[in-house]
Design a protein that fits this description.
single chain, 267 residues, alpha/beta, 3 domains, five-stranded mixed beta sheet, two-stranded parallel ribbon, 10 helices, 9 strands, 21% strand
Length: 267
């Protein structure tokens, strides 16, 4: 999260470890995950040459991704549910919270108030994620003590314990982290490197949006609930959290919508 939004990282966590500890015990936060309405195949794992590709979910994001307990690309690494100096949460409680989020998603699926006005972020200024894409590439070759390299297809099926990550973006297969300190004049220079058979890194933003919600999701109400959406506005340059505070056109659209709704009210 720190790589994408420094301020958001301070609130919900900067790494996978920190975010897991917060979200896993927060049904409200888990409700923000893509639901079944978001569609399929939005989690991709592919090699840098494009020769290998796996995409999920095939149908059910809850069972295939959020409740995947073993694979390294699953939503939650179970070890991170027990943060240092924090209150631990059992996997079973996390499962309960995910199912609560799923129930909420299904309850509101397809529902829009009959008198709804919508605005959302568009344009190209505020990048967002449409898909989560893990790119696999060859790492810096490790020492022979680590044995033969696994194949690409084996990498995608590996368990959490078979890869290395500190909760930041990069995930490594095999190899090790090494460091060295050298002296240059009166100064000491610290260097570090990672060796691995394979290195996986999450690709950057791939969609327009408001920095949080991608363009496709922002425009979804008109597509799904056309009869109840009285008007919908795509506004370029809108940021998700400070939209009402910092964007004058968003403020004007809100005022306009409230005026229209007031005119529809029965006295």
């Amino acid at each position: 999260m720190a790589d994408e939004d420094y301020i958001a990282g301070l609130v919900i966590g900067s790494t996978g470890k920190e975010i897991s500890a917060v979200f896993a015990q927060s049904p409200g936060a888990l409700q923000l995950l893509p639901s079944e309405e978001y569609g399929i195949r939005w989690l991709e794992i592919e090699d840098s040459s494009g020769r290998y590709n796996q995409s999920l979910p095939q149908s059910d994001p809850y069972e295939e991704i959020y409740l995947e307990r073993n694979k390294w690309w699953g939503l939650i690494k179970e070890d991170w549910l027990n943060p240092v100096d924090g209150e631990p949460i059992e996997w079973g409680m996390y499962v309960v919270n995910i199912k609560m989020a799923r129930g909420f998603h299904r309850k509101i699926s397809g529902f829009f108030h009959p008198n709804t006005f919508v605005f959302y972020g568009g344009g190209n200024d505020k990048k967002s994620f449409l898909k989560i894409k893990w790119i696999i590439k060859k790492g810096l070759p490790p020492h022979s003590k680590f044995g033969p390299s696994p194949t690409l297809s084996q990498v995608s099926g590996m368990r959490h314990g078979s890869v290395r990550t500190d909760g930041s973006n990069n995930v490594y297969v095999g190899g090790e982290s090494t460091s060295n300190t050298t002296t240059r004049g009166d100064s000491s220079v610290y260097t570090s490197k990672e060796t691995s058979f394979w290195e996986m890194r999450c690709a950057p933003h791939d969609s327009a949006g408001d920095g949080t919600v991608p363009l496709r999701s922002g425009g979804f109400p008109r597509e799904a609930g056309a009869r109840n959406i009285l008007q919908q506005f795509e506004l370029p340059g809108v940021s998700h959290e400070p939209a009402y505070r910092d964007h004058p056109i968003a403020q004007q659209v809100t005022y306009y919508s409230l005026t229209k709704l007031a005119a529809l009210a029965r006295i």
